[in-house]
Amino acid sequence: MEDIKVLTDFQYDALKEVGNIGIGNATTSLSQMVNKKVDISLPDLKLVPIIKVPIIVKNAAPVVGIIQQLKGDSSGFLVLLLSKDSAKLLIKLVLGQTENNTTFNEMEQSVLKELGNIMNGTYISSLSNFLGIALGLLPPNQVYDMSDAIINQIVGMMSMDVEDVLFMRTEFTVNSEKIDGRILIFTDSDSLTRILGAINKLLGK
Q1: Are 83 and 102 in contact (CB under 8 A)?
Q2: N or C: which end of the chain has fewer CB within 10 A?
Q3: H helices, E strands: number in the chain
Q4: pLDDT reported for residue 160
């Protein structure tokens, strides 16, 4: 039976701190984008075995996934998952209106990509600066599908092994409306070890 990796208290605190820094930057960018005050929190962060990821993100309806490939010192992908209702609400905040249907037109897809780019990019930028390792993101792709299909697509795009995924639940509050999102970081085992090792070095380990 494979060992289940668990973040140490220090690793958890460091990643949460990075998340809070990134969220601060994202809050500023999103507030300017929607011209309204946006609050973002990070209520949940943990390492999840890849086999359990489809379970924790399972949704009865299709979801929006904004997918970006990592570049630099780590290999893998980031994905921001949003329910259709959450995605439509965010689009409405940016554009002032949205089409009332189950699909997303070209303009709406562009907005979602930019929102994902802000959320994913601010976290990766903060992680890179905090740990002193080179990390970046390629331009985003947007998909609308069942959550398990999106996860399978990402795993299929990774030619390297992936055992554990860093899972973060985010919560947006705009005009008293709460919007839940999920950010998942898929990396191969070597990249994850490198990231966690860089965190341990901060403690002098």
Answers
A1: no
A2: N
A3: 6, 7
A4: 60
- What pLDDT was estimated at residue 193? 86
User: Is 47:56 a contact under the CB 8 Å cutoff?
Assistant: no
Range of the structural domain that residue 133 is part of: 9-202
Within the chain, residue ranges assigned H as helices are: 9-34, 53-56, 84-95, 106-131, 147-157, 189-202
Which residue is listed with tokens 């390792």? 133
Q: Which residue has the tokens 């039976």?
A: 1
Tokens representing 49? 């075995």
CA–CA gap between residue 25 and residue 160 (Å, rounded): 31
Reported as a single tens digit per residue, the pLDDT across 75-127 is 899 999 999 988 888 888 888 877 777 788 899 999 999 988 888 888 899 88
Is residue 2 in some structural domain? no
Cβ 202 vs Cβ 14: under 8 Å: yes
- For residues 140 and 135, give the distance between their C-alpha atoms in angstroms, rounded to a whole number: 15
